[in-house]
Design goal:
Length: 169
């Protein structure tokens, strides 16, 4: 069944969904606050890109510090909007009128979790930049290379596992 043939249903916005929206909003605001505070303390030139060994690849104007919160905000808004249209998502199972409510809710919730985890990832990257400038040394934190992909992938993987387990029952 193509997504054009999938049932259109109104999703229930539950308390968890509201809390996820609130959490994502607060994290995005926090990232902006941190960026504005750091901006006033930074020199004109700051490291803006690091390689896998923690060496600076690119130096840029301190205004480039606002790219992280800007992209973070844009992605969070886009994902929040996208979570309202689960009928267009890809699913590992066939969506029918009988199971659509469950799978749509689960997929939308996974996207709302991404609205929380993605700003955390951007906040960690901002922290990395601030730390490098403050310490006047450029060293990446090794656990970020593991933590950031895990933060982004975990909600999606959990949702897929729940979908597959539901299908088996």
């Amino acid at each position: 069944m193509s997504f054009r043939d999938r049932p259109l249903i109104a999703l229930k916005i539950e308390k968890t969904d509201r809390l996820l929206f609130l959490a994502s909003t607060l994290i995005v605001v926090f990232v902006w606050v941190v960026a504005f505070r750091a901006y006033s303390m930074f020199p004109e030139t700051i490291p803006t890109q690091f390689d896998a060994n923690g060496k600076v690849q690119i130096w840029g104007n301190r205004k480039s510090l606002f790219m992280l919160p800007s992209v973070c905000t844009g992605m969070t808004i886009l994902l929040a909007w996208l979570s309202k249209f689960p009928q267009f998502f890809n699913y590992p199972i066939t969506i029918t009128k009988d199971n659509a409510a469950f799978y749509y809710q689960l997929a939308s919730r996974a996207i709302r979790w991404l609205c929380v985890t993605i700003p955390i990832v951007f906040g960690l990257e901002l922290w990395q930049t601030i730390r490098s400038v403050k310490n006047n040394s450029v060293e990446t934190v090794g656990w970020l290379w593991v933590a950031e992909p895990l933060l982004v992938l975990t909600p999606v993987v959990i949702a897929i596992i729940k979908m597959i387990n539901k299908q088996k029952k």
